[in-house]
Structure formats: structure tokens, C-alpha cells
Amino acid sequence: MKAPSLHLDRNLLHRLGIVAVLLVIAGALSATTDSFATASNLTNVARQISINGILAVGVTFVLLTGGVDLSLGSVVALSGVVCALFAHPGEHSLVVPIGMGLLTGVACGLFNGVLVTRGGIAPFIVTLGMMTVARGLALILSGGKPVADMSPSLTNLAGDLGPLPIPLLCFGVVAGGSWLFLSRLRLGRHLYAVGGNEQAARAAGVSVPKVKLFAYGLCGLLTGLAGVVLAARITTGQPNAGQAYELDAIAAVVIGGTSLSGGVGSVLGTVLGVLLIGVINNGLDLLSVSSYYQAVIKGVIIVGAVWLDRRQARS
Amino acid sequence: MLRAFELTKVFGGLPVLQRVSLEFRPGEVHALMGENGAGKSTLMKMLAGLYQPDGGIIEWRGQQVRFGSPQDALAQGIAMVHQELMPIPDLNVAENLLLGMEPVNALGWVDRAALHQQAQAWLRSLDTELDTTLPMRRLSVAQMQVVEIAKALARQADVILMDEPTAALSDHEVAALFKAIGTLRARGVAVVYTTHKMDEVFRLADRISVLRDGQLVCTQAASEFSPDSLITHMVGRELAQVFPPVVTQPGETILEVQGLTRAHAYRDISFTLRRGEVLGLAGLMGAGRTEVVSALFGLAPADSGQIRLRGQPTRITCPADALAAGFGMVTEDRKGSGIIPAMSVEHNLTLAALEQFSPGSVLDRSAEAAATRSATADFAIKASSPQQAIRELSGGNQQKVLLARALLHRPDILILDEPTRGIDIGAKAEIYALIGRLSAQGTAVLLVSSELPEILALTHRILVLRQGELSAELNPRQTNQEEILRHAMPQ
User: Fold this and answer.
1) Are A71 and A232 in contact (CB under 8 A)?
2) Domain A41-314 listed as CATH 1.10.3470
3) First to last CA, chain B
4) Does the pLDDT of residue A190 top 90, yes or no?
5) Nearest-CA neighbor of A213 among A70, A114, A103, A72?
6) What does the pLDDT look like over B352-382, one tens digit per residue?
7) Domains of chain B by range and CATH?
8) Which residues in chain B have Cβ-Cβ distances shorter than 8 Å to A184?
9) Are B25 and B221 in contact (CB under 8 A)?
10) B139, B168 in Cβ contact below 8 A?
């Protein structure tokens, strides 16, 4: 009975496929550039992927239920602005700006979730609306200007803890926690069930609205976290930050094997997708490819990766 | 005309069809019989170009062919009418029927008058009158099937493959379909057909091929089979007794339903159910049987009426309530509200009783695996491993997983809505035996079924629904199919 187990581990094969592509690209970059395989560059990559990583893990939950969240980038900006507003030196303890940033994210996420579950509006539309509302709110609250003058205790959060960048640690904790959540908790299983067949999940006693609300809320929380990390990193609350972040995040999730129609996917896949996109971005920078070309190349790689994967799935 | 030679297909390492050779002749109705998972659907799908064979060849009019897609097969004159029909619900009958071959005028615009005229002509050739301007979604399943057949004819099909065309049809709809099949035969079309209904095969088929476990057991003229010999060939053993005797004495009342009403579905439904009792709900399609049991399980709550459970008034607004109150249910629509296709057998099985396996909400995966092992053995579920995706299993095995799911949290009341629809005789017998065992253990069973022999043999009492109202309560030992039908027919 060797053949069935091979067949069953398609997920594993998929992951090995991404790892192989990652290794090939990393090997090529090490060979063609002097700077890729240096400690300082790799820490730089780690720093860059952290924010996309946190967002991608968050939106994995939503995609698993068969939904989508297009408001990530705007909510990142709004959470960052709110965080910065409470982060002026000497005003509040560190907990307040962080808490307010996270709360902003959760509020946006739950709002999306309520409109999707109670309102019965398609997630695409709901989160498209949230995308412009959150962006607008960020501009209103900041008066259209970056919110500067942030306390060093907060901006230090973008620094290192020992040898590791704190944003990377955040990403690691988020990914590890989410992986455990999805594979070991009842609610995690319910997420897959709702995305796999909503009617059947309901008939099996799963509370579909609660599960969806949870997914959007958690995605919002992680988006808020990404907003706080970004504000710390750029030392301002930028109302125009995070443009199109949702696209990189969703691309990473899909490259990681999560189905856009829900019910199939994993955090591990998402993490690999994030790494792949991160290394490609970094490599294009190191090779001094113009950013105009970078955009084109990235788009082709995203579509190509998914196309290859689906072709494999059919055979 | 169409020949399969040593066709083989492998799924997930398991051979589902092994070196099957068959021949189909014009003007002949050829029935493929076998249990679920025997390979009938797979064989048809290969002939229709949906699947590519992993071995063997298909010969069409003396030439070896390879169909890359259903379109390829159709272009050659081989059409398939699917178990799950695939019409475009918002287009009308004529548009569906002539999809992709609409008559056009000189400007290239669709000629509506000609479209409807042609569509009607095709339908009339099957002795059917239908308003071709109706959107497809308004048609009954039987009418859609006739449209699908007409669609195949319009594309000059010489072979029409039908996968369980009567599974969802009422008796008079079946009669209409048979008439259409008769017309096809007279026109020299080769009809290949699967079903689980014995009486049908003998009424319809010229030749019968029996498949078992992916292999061809025999091909003979239908007249050379008897129902008994056919079953023996399909199952590979004598079925000593399909129906277990009803021996259990029902205990105290567990469920009382009073005046249950839902607009446009059912009115004033009242009945009681006792521990260990098997209560049958009979009626025609659309009589409200599924709607009533859906209300009990919280899938579609009633507008008014009372449900008393163990003497206590109980409100059930969602399936989670019903599960907590001690109900279990296997729904009628296995694909729609039963399985989660991409999930594994194990995860499908434990889904409704997940609380058991996750005290404090952390899953105990070894307990899940143990429960799956024992359920797989108890219900004889055939899967390559508990991690196999359930969509890769045959319908009968999927159904067994769903039964195991419903029983995992030991319900006091089990609702079975058409539990044996589209299931082979072996799996049916297993389900009948299970109902007997559950009843002996004191589980109350509410059985909705369109198969009257089943309801007559298994139940303690039969309720008949007619157009949303209770029309009779019958003792199965003192009634017969004719009497049940008399109460079920609209007056």
C-alpha cells in the first residue's frame, strides 16, 4: 500500500515543491550576488517578511472559511495611526498604544465579520468597503499627515531581542500559535469544516456565523499587530502606509496551497509562501532590478506558482 | 458499436476498475449493475471522456479512440446524462437544450423562434410536451432529465450513458423517463444505464452486466437473470435475509410533536415517538417529509407547534441544539449537507461529536484515531486510510461514514432521511441490520423513505404525509404498498 500514502501526502509534496523552489532561488542568489548570503542581508529579509507574514497568517483564517479580506493594507495604516496617536513620549505606558492598535484591528475585523454573517453581504464587497473606510479614517485621524513623535520605547519594538529582530519573533509566535490552533483545537477543525461545506458543517452542529466572525476578528487582530509593528519600524503613524499589502498577503497564502474557495490549506504552507515572496523581493532588489520590472516579475511568479500547483492537483 | 477492452482505472493507488471488457450495441438498453464502488460510474465516465483510462482501450465504430474530454466524446456521438444534472438554472429550456448550437439568423443573432421550435421538436420526439420558455430551475428533476436526454439527441448522440437516472424520481416520473428510453431504443440508440432498483432493470434492460469490486462478473441477456441470481452476482454471496425482523417492544414515550406547522411546507403535524421504536414517514416527493424532520433537527425550524422531549417542552432552533438534546440525523442530501468533500474520512466522522474528543477544546487526536478505527471496522467502511479525502470514496461508503458520524455521540433519537438512496444492496442490508440493532438498544428511529418495502419491513408504525398533512397512521403488519400509496396520493 505504498501508492496511497504517496498520493495522500500531496500537501507534503506541495510544500516540498515550494522548499525546492526556495532553495534554487536562494542558491542562485548566493552564486550571483556577494550580499545575499550575509547575516545582515538575511536579517533584513527576516525584518521585511515579518509584516507580510503576520498579515498572511491572519488572512489564512479568513480564506479557510471561504471568505476574503481586502482591507488588510488600510487597516494596517489605521491601526498604525491610532497606535502612534497614543505613543507620544511620556503620555501613556507602552501597553496603551499597542492595545489601541490591536483593538482598532479587532474592531475592523469584527465589523467585517458581522456584515458578512449577519448582513449576508459577500466578503469581497464588505472588505472592499472597509478598505476605503479604514483608509479614510486613517487620513481623518492623522489630518492627512504622518503622526510623528513616537516614544522610543515603542519604536524600539522594531529592534532586536538578542540576535533576532522583534518583528520576526512576533511573526514566529503568530505562526506557531496559529498552526497549533488550526491543527489541535476544536475551533480550528470547525474553520476547515465551514470552508469545506457550510451546509454540512451546520448540520453537524457547527455554529457557522460564530466561526466566521471569529476568523474575521482574529484576522483583524493580527492586522492590528502588523500595523503596530509597521509604525514602530517607520517610527511614524503613516496614513498612506500599507498600500496593496493585502495582495502580497493573499498571494503568499495561495502560493502556500490554501484554496480560495475555502476548506483547504495550512499555516505551514502560508509561511513557506511568505518566505518565497520575501526572498524573491530581496533578490530582485539585490540584482538591482528596477521596481517597475519587479512588479511585473512578481505578478508573473504568483500566477505561475498557482497555475503549476493546480496543474499538479489535476494530474 | 462501442467497445471497452480491458479498461482499467486507479484512484489513489486503489484500482477501482480492472480490465473490464464490454460491448454496447445500437438499439439496446444495457444495464450496469453492482454495489456502490463496484466501478459502474467510473466505467461510464471513461466512456464519456470524463476520465482517462489508466489501461485498456476504447473502440468506437471499429477504431481505437481516446476522448480527452466530454466534448470529444460528444463530438463522436457519445453523451452522458449525469447523476447530478448540470443544467444552467437561469437559462430557459430551449437555451439549455441547444446550448452552443443555437440557430442564428443572417446577422449571427440567435433566432429565438427557431430556437424554441427546434427545442420543442426534440422534446416531442421523446413524447414530451414542455414549455420551452421556462427557466430550467422551475423544472422537476424528471423534466430536467428529459431535457438532458433531448440535449444528447440534438447532438446526434448514438450512445447515451445514464448514471442512476431514476434515483430522485417519483413513480410516474420514472414511467415518463422509461417511455423516453423506449423511444431511444426504437431509434437505434445504444442506452447504457445504472440503477439500484431491481424492478426497473427487469422492466427496461435488454442485457445486464454485473460489476463487483471493479471487475466484470458476467454479461447476459436480462431474461437469463432472476432478481435473486442478480443479487447473488452483485454481492458475491447469498443474501439470506435482507430485512431483520422487528422484534423490539417500544419503551416509554421520548418525543411528542404537537401541531407543527410551517407555511407552504406542512400543517398541524402531531405524533409521538417511543424509545426503541422505528417510526416510518412515508409520502410522495414534496409531501413535506424532509421538511418535518428538518424542523425537528433545527435545520429549518417550524413557524409554530410544540416539541416535547422526555416530557419537557424543548426549543430547537439550530442543529447544535438538536445534537445537544439527543438527536442525530443523516440528511437526504449527502453532497449538499452531508460530507465535507475535501476533509479526511476521520475528520468527517468525528465532526458532529467533536466535543467528546476535545475536552477543554484541545483535540485528543489519538482518541479520534481510535474512534475512527472502530467505526471503520463496525461499519465496514472501505477507504485506503482514515486520512483519505472522503470525496474519493464511493457513495455507499460516504453514507456509512455519515451514519457513523450521527451515531458517534449516541443519540436517543436518530433521524434517517432516505438513508439508502443510491446505495447498493449490500450496504442497504448493513443499514437495515443497524436500524434493528439501534432499536433493540432503545434508540428511537425516525425513518423517512420512498422505498415502501423498506418502510413496511423495518418499522413499528407508519405515518403517511400528503401535501403537508398527516393523512394516515398505519400498522405495517396490517397494510400494504397499495394502501400507503392511496393515502399518499393527492386527492
Assistant:
1) no
2) yes
3) 48
4) yes
5) A114
6) 999 889 888 899 999 999 999 999 998 888 8
7) 2-235 (3.40.50.300), 253-488 (3.40.50.300)
8) 362-363, 365
9) no
10) no
Q: Is the sign of the CA dihedral B391, B397, B400, B405 positive or negative?
A: negative
- Of residues A117 and B287, more confidence is placed in A117
CB contact under 8 A, B341 and A197: yes
Best interface-test mutation with B: which of A6, A8, A64, A210 has the largest number of B CBs within 10 A? A8
* Alpha carbon A266 to its chain's center: 13
Strand order in the sheet with B63-65: B14-24, B2-11, B55-60, B63-65
Residue B416 predicted with pLDDT over 60: yes
For A153-189, the pLDDT digits (tens) are 899 888 888 888 999 999 999 999 999 999 999 999 9
DSSP H or E segment with residue A116 = helix A95-117
| Residue A310, pLDDT above cutoff 90 | no
Q: Using CA atoms, how far apart are residues B404 and B400, in angstroms rounded to an integer?
A: 6
Disruptive mutation site among A1, A2, A5, A7 for chain B (greatest number of B CBs within 10 Å): A7
Question: What pTM was estimated for this model as a whole?
Answer: 0.77
Report the side by side order of strands in the sheet with B304-309.
Answer: B266-274, B253-262, B304-309, B312-313
Angle at the Cα of A196 (from A191 to A201), degrees rounded to 5?
Answer: 70
Q: Does B352 touch chain A (CB under 8 A)?
A: yes
For B79-140, where are the alpha helices, taking DSSP H only?
93-97, 112-124
User: How many residues in chain A?
Assistant: 315
First and final C-alpha spacing in chain A: 20
Closest C-alpha among A69, A10, A289 to residue B387:
A10
**Residue A3: what pLDDT?**
36
C-alpha cell at B124: 416531442
Enumerate residues 6+ apart whose C-beta is below 8 A from B475: B461, B462
Cβ contacts of A276-280, under 8 Å, gap ≥ 24: A276/A18, A276/A21, A276/A22, A276/A25, A276/A252, A276/A305, A277/A49, A277/A52, A277/A248, A277/A251, A277/A252, A277/A302, A278/A45, A278/A48, A278/A49, A278/A52, A278/A53, A279/A22, A279/A25, A279/A26, A279/A29, A279/A45, A280/A25
Return the C-alpha cell found at B179.
Answer: 417511455
CB A153 within 8 A of CB A33: no
Residues paired with B24 in a beta bridge: B2
Looking at residue A10, its pLDDT comes to 58
Other C-beta atoms lying within 10 Å of the C-beta of residue A264: 21
Identify the DSSP state of B362.
Answer: B
Instruction: Show residues of chain B in contact with A315, CB under 8 Å.
Output: none
Closest residue by Cα to residue B5 from B50, B49, B47: B47
Closest CA to B37 of B18, B16, B7: B16
Asked if B356 is an interface residue toward chain A (Cβ–Cβ < 8 A), one would say no
Instruction: Quote the pLDDT of residue B405.
Output: 95
Residue for grid cell 386527492: B491
Name every residue whose Cβ is closer than 8 Å to that of residue A207 and which is 6 or more positions away in sequence: B318, B320
- Hey, what's the cell of B394? 464511493
Q: Is the pLDDT at B402 greater than 90, yes or no?
A: yes
Question: Judging by DSSP bridges, how do beta strands B207-212 and B29-33 pair with one another?
Answer: parallel
Q: What is the DSSP letter of B409?
A: T
Domain ranges across chain A: 41-314
- Of the pLDDT bands very low, low, confident and very high (cuts 50, 70, 90), residue B247 is confident
Interatomic CA distance for residues A21 and A42, integer angstroms: 18
ipTM above 0.90, yes or no: no
Cα A254 to Cα A122, A276, A305, A307, distances in angstroms: 20, 12, 9, 11
Residue A83 has pLDDT above 70, yes or no: yes
Contact residues, A window 285-314, toward B, CB-based 8 Å cutoff: none
